[in-house]
Please model this.
Amino acid sequence: MGTLPIDTNIVSFLFKNDTRALQYAPLLTGNRLSISFVTVGELFEWATVRTWGPARRQQLEQRLTTYLVIPVDIELCRVWGAIRGEQQAKGTSISTNDAWIAATARRHTLPLVTHNPKDFANVQGLDVRSIIIT
Model:
């Protein structure tokens, strides 16, 4: 059993019991699912934007306890800066939050499972896994 970082979209599928979550089961099963600290922030942002009530927020808080939340540290910041700088040097871009998620996986030399592999296609040294064929 390994640690497997998952993108925010995968967490969303699992939380909502979306049928796409079942498609990802072969990639996820048997692993300790982890998320970047920034994914936690994105989920709380969604709860605010969608005006979730206390019960739904409590459900989110409970679900978050099932994941290993990978915190920020100096090395993660170093990797994030490198990823953003590499993208600029290549004339490409990556969103701030996607860069944090990519940096989390790359910093710990772990594959990243996402439903949006194109968001991470230009990140050197990142093992991206998806059911989407790019």
Observations:
- The CA atoms of residues 43 and 49 lie 10 Å apart.
- The chain has one domain: 3-129.
- Residues 74-90 form the longest helix (17 residues).
